[in-house]
Amino acid sequence: MERELVVTGVGGQGIQLLAKTLALAATREGRHAMLSADYGGEMRGGPSRASVVIGDGPLRALPVLASAWSAIVAHHRFGEPVLARLRPGGPAIVNLPLVDPASLPRMTVYGVDATAVATSVGAPQAIGFVLLGAYNAVTRLVDPASLVAAMEELLPPYRKQHAAANARALEAGAAAIGGRDVRHAEVQR
Amino acid sequence: MTLELLEGNDAIAASAIAAGCRFFAGYPMSPFTGLLESMSRRLPAAGGVCLNAESEIEGVNMTLGAAAAGARAATGSCGQGIALMQEAIAEAALNETPFVVFNMARNQQDYFQATRGGGWGDYRTITLAPKDVPEAVEHAQLAFHLADRYRAPVIFYGDPLLAQTRVGVSIRPLDFGPLPPKDWALDGTGGGTGRSRQIWTWAMGKATDPGPGPDRHWRAVAEKFAAIDATESRFEQAHVEDAETLVVAFGSAARFVEYVVDELRADGHRIGWFRPVTLWPFPGAALTAATTGKRRVLVFELNAGQMLDDVRIHAADRAAIRFIGGVSISESGLAFGELMDAPVIRDRILAVLAEGERP
After folding, report:
1. β-strands A70-73, A91-95: how paired?
2. Is there a contact between A35 and B5 if contact means CB atoms under 8 Å apart?
């Protein structure tokens, strides 16, 4: 089983770090992962996209995805080319209210107000981790504890003070999805 | 087997060091820069040396020097920087100094540069073109083995996807078999004794120990490359038996073609693919066999048609060949353009198939 995720947003939203965190978490669980990053030269505000593929064996997916099962949409800007490749029916986590859920009519859309959730747990800089926590609650691709461990491993020494807040953001993102039904039972490991 | 999630450049550097690379010199140039950075992080801890040279010319000549002293040594750049290295690569080929050149290319436009070379003399460079990061990890080690086995520079032909994609890989030393001793290496101990060793492109030797001279030496070097040509070509192919159409591609492009061919076969098309793993030696006999009786031979590469020449030389029927690649560069000029994409490749193949009997 191979699962593809595209993440899209603007530079500064934490797109690259959340994608890297998921890919590393899967790797640490002994699974195969591939991470492709695509971002503009701007520090903030430019296009920022990433794709993650996770599988139980060597991956068939290409580094430029031909199609993808799922998405995290942190911002609608720059997202069109990758979102056009989503296979209908898969899960999409969208960042409310920036992203209109109706913009992905063929997907199973889960809206999360990531800014409000992140702020409520004292982690306003961590909307990316809120979205990732929500995504993993829906897809259950990795153990939530693996996400926390991968996030901590990826933080450079001068960012370690954010580890606790990031962990809260991951958890709060998952809680924001709450008891909502996971329609696609096959996504469970 | 524990997998590490490494960026391609980092995985290639780690693998080269696992193969015993202990000297690296280069000058930053995207997308090669990550490989140089990784070498500078990793090599000192492995007891090696990594130098940021002041130019590509300096970097390759430092590497030649380290290799002449017997070290497993490498340099790298992208095609633009390797253009500057051509003189040293030709010298090394002709004076038989083994090292590896990592071309973390921006695109596939360096096929001629790699396979035809830009220096003087009757030489070739063994060129490995991996299709994905796991194979790049293997080739990073195979390159040193082939260099040492044949006392010749070897080119590793990478690209932006191989350089920058992060993939779970396992890196450990690979055993490719025994190698001859480096009894030719300079050790700095013979000065003034009359027993000093010499590595010289013209092989004229010295008064006390005359060498074979350029005529005999260069004929021997040419014969060595002919022997490599006859024995070291590598290729991969699939669905050749029942295919009416065969798609030829190399490097990352071949990985994309493989993906698309699988899809087309699922749709009922009788199609297969052929990938030269070594660009030189080109697997010509294998391509002749694979293309025999095929209705169409499609060539896909992201350039104006370079490997196309080798396909024309070796295809069973030249009239069956159709070029479906092209020049395609990103806006930045540093990466592949929109042609490196499965749906685009699929459309190009289907367009030819729709034309009917012959391409």
Report:
1. parallel
2. yes
Q: With contact defined as beta carbons under 8 Å apart, do B170 and B1 qualify?
A: yes
Q: Say if the Cβ atoms of B167 and A33 lie within 8 Å.
A: yes
Each domain of chain B, given as residue ranges in start order, spans 4-169, 236-353
Residue B132: its chain A contacts at CB < 8 A? Answer: 63
Given A24, A34, A66, which is nearest B343 (Cβ)?
A: A66
Q: A184 is written with which tokens?
A: 């696609």
Nearest-neighbour CA in chain A from B31: distance (Å): 13
The per-residue pLDDT for A179 is: 54
**How far apart (Å, rounded) are the C-alpha atoms in residues A16 and A11?**
9
Cβ-defined contact of B259 to A62 (cutoff 8 Å) = yes
A57 touching B (Cβ < 8 Å): no
Inspect the interface and report whether the beta carbons of A66 and B165 lie closer than 8 Å. no
Lowest-confidence range among A135-144, B96-105, B108-117, B192-201? B192-201
φ, ψ of residue B78 in degrees (nearest 5): -110, 180
DSSP SS3 for B316: coil
- When pLDDT is cut at 50, 70 and 90, the band that residue A186 belongs to is very low
Given the candidates 3.20.20.100, 3.40.50.920, 3.20.20.70, 3.30.1490.190, the CATH classification of the domain at B236-353 is 3.40.50.920
Joined together, the tokens standing for residue A164 give: 């606790």
CB contact under 8 A, B3 and A30: yes
Angle at B196 between CA B195 and CA B197, to 5 degrees: 120
Domains by residue range for chain A, with CATH: 2-178 (3.40.920.10)
- Quick check: A56 contacting B, CB < 8 Å? no
- Give the residue on A whose Cα is nearest the Cα of B166: A35
Spatial distance between the Cα atoms of B178 and B332, rounded to a whole number of angstroms: 44
Angstrom distance (rounded) from CA B66 to CA B64: 6
State whether B5 and A58 contact (CB < 8 Å). Answer: no
Strand pairing report for B100-104 and B271-276 = unpaired
- Extract the tokens encoding B250: 């190399």
Q: Locate tokens 């997907």: which residue? A: A107
pLDDT, tens digit (0-9, with 9 covering 90-100), for B133-169: 999 999 999 999 999 999 999 999 999 999 999 999 9
Question: At what angle are helices B307-314 and B284-291 packed, to 10 degrees?
Answer: 60
Q: At what angle do helices A163-177 and A144-154 cross, to 10 degrees?
A: 150
**Do the domains spanning B4-169 and B236-353 agree at the CATH topology level?**
yes
Fold of B4-169: Rossmann fold (3.40.50)
CB contact under 8 A, A66 and B341: yes
Question: Is A27 within 8 Å of chain B by CB?
Answer: yes
Q: How far is B10 from chain A, CA to nearest CA, in Å? A: 14
Task: Check: pTM over 0.90? Answer yes or no.
Answer: yes
Listed in sequence order, the residues at least 6 apart from B325 whose beta carbon sits closer than 8 Å to its beta carbon are B108, B249, B253, B299, B300, B301, B302, B303, B305, B308, B339
